[in-house]
Amino acid sequence: MKVVAMIPARYASSRFPGKLLKDLCGKPMLVRTYETVQRMGLFDDVHIVTDSIKIQKTLASFNIPILKSKEEHDCGSDRLAEVADGIHADIIINVQGDEPFTNRTDLANLIRLFQQDIDGSIDLASLMLPITDIKKIENPNNVKVIVDRNDRALYFSRHPIPYQRNKLKGTNYFKHIGIYAFRKQALLDFYHSPKGILEQAEAIECIRHLENGKTIKMISTDAPSIGIDTPEDLQEAEKLWQKKSE
Predict the structure, then answer these.
(1) Nearest of 193, 190, 155, 192 to residue 176 by alpha carbon
(2) The pTM is what?
């Protein structure tokens, strides 16, 4: 089973333009993420996929090759799917370029899940983090997921789910962590499927898989996602990186 990591990288960002090329303790953030994933030793190949000439030129100075995509994509999965057809891989894991602290254990668990899926019943897998803070539960920027008894995703929403009509104690809430592991065909199917009503209403790309009957297996993690979305996030990341390097 050939497992490939792919990092979608676009230069534009509404909240933090050019953030992937911002310096993180001596190297661009995207380079830090790429090197982190390479050092894990989990993947047969690691690819960065971008439409940006600026990103391409920066990575060339670090001798990091890229796969080139077109500019017009609504999400990272579309960007990866555009080039995936030409990649030899059984499993493709989408790693976010603005998460240089991606947890190795989580990625290893995603890979192991497919290694153990002998009958090929799982189309893709992702991560969920238990949350208890009511502000995080109610924050629409935190996508929540509910699962069945076998941890297969039932639905994703920006609204708190399940809704607590009966105020039951012990109800669990999970935040979706946006690292995806795809069977290659599932990624290609996503690319060639139109957006459904539910995906458009929630603005959550993984709902498209559910609307098309795909099986998404969720793995619980205790490692919070550390993304860099603002200049303030970058300052905190610098402190964390320095601490990690001590």
Answers:
(1) 155
(2) 0.91
